[in-house]
Fold Iron-regulated protein A.
Amino acid sequence: MKIKQLALALFSIILITACTESNDDSTSGSSDNFDRKALLENAADNIIIPALQDLNSDLTALKASKETFITTPNQTNLDNLRTDWLAAYKTWQYVEMFNIGKAEEILYSFQMNIYPTNTTDIQNNIASGSYDLTSPNNNDAVGFPALDYLLYGLGNDDSAIIDFYTTDSNALGYKNYLSDVIDQMDNLTTTVLTDWTSSYRDIFVSSTANTASSSVNMLVNDFIFYYEKGLRANKVGIPAGVFSTTPLADKVEGLYSKVYSKELALTALQAVQDFFNGKAYNNSTIGISYASYVTLLRDNSGSSDLTASINSQIEAARTELDQLDNNLYNQVNNNNVAMLMTYDELQRVTVLLKVDMLQTLNISVDYVDADGD
């Protein structure tokens, strides 16, 4: 009996030890000799923080032009305000994919770029003069899309738009709302940037393990999620009717300004490719990246050059996208087949990133996929 009990105890110890070792293996840092910390340092120091700093500067300029317009609402000041809005919106395309840290905590992107904007909510807020722009109920009444409406969509022409800020019975309400939306965008961006530069950067770059909550894994998942949902679906697929029974042209980004929807999509695609390749935000320096990681692992296994395939397919998608009308609303209504062809090319990138790349990196998808690969 004692021998049987001793054997049972010994078996239990062996089993527990084996399970512990197995769990440690699955949650430990990568054993592939790739410098994951260098990847994170390049992402933080040369891409994410510089892009946020640029956006912060753009929004400071936008605030200044907003104050000038509110003081003197005329055509020149409206044009300047629109110019600064577009500059900041294009920079935003380099920031939106990084939904990590404070950005995730405060739902940054939800308060910056939910489109189409809800014009009824905007008008109700202006009419009441009482609103909480941080409320989730107002996510579709703030940010860049709300400014798109306030700067381009209030009237049939520029003269009519300026009237809302001058002769309208509630001109002060329109001025206040315009001002509050821009101030909120600036405050949110400052909050995210300050967190990166004060404490989060060091936490971020030190999280190198291959776990669901590590920086390397979360960052690549956020990157792919943005590409799949924020770029492929929102900018092209949804307006083209890929996920509905009919095309939805009024779902395009930059609906009211009319001519910037393709430009914003092209900028976003460039931002995606730059990040994948580790290109610095404000210069041409190439650093350690997910492309580097993929290349190392594929070379070690003798597999095909996935990095080249991803870049080649992004170029194919860019070629299709670049052929579209500057106004994607018109493109959907006049020749939606071209939109669908562009979506198909973008979708091929999704498969390479979400399936081939993640399998190569041995990283699991951490978000729910509602529309398949």
Remarks:
- Residues 31-208 form a domain with the A middle domain of Talin 1 fold (CATH 1.20.1420.20).
- Residues 1-29 have pLDDT under 50 and may be disordered.
- The chain has two domains: 31-208, 209-373.
